[in-house]
Amino acid sequence: MISKTTALRSDKLRNAAKNQQCSVQILGVCNFNPDTVVLAHLFSTAHGMAYKSDDFWAVDCCSNCHDVLDGRVSFEWLAGEKEQYMLAALHITLMRRIRDGILIIQ
């Protein structure tokens, strides 16, 4: 059984975000600069509000989009679409990791 308080951490997953294109690409927000891309953790109820989610529940994200996902910058029009951006970005990020051999499906 996996502990609900211990998040999965992986240097390979976090380092794989370096120099990627932002997978979130929020219209009117994204800076499209791979130099600013980091692995941005998505909200997860599995670990609670005080903890970062697992490293596989995260997306390649530029600094501008990261600010919006983390709530440091607010865009009212985005409220209804935020989850769509996050899920699409998660799909793109996971497919990159599979393509690059970092995540392996057996």
From TrEMBL:
Pfam families: YbcO. This is DUF1364 domain-containing protein.
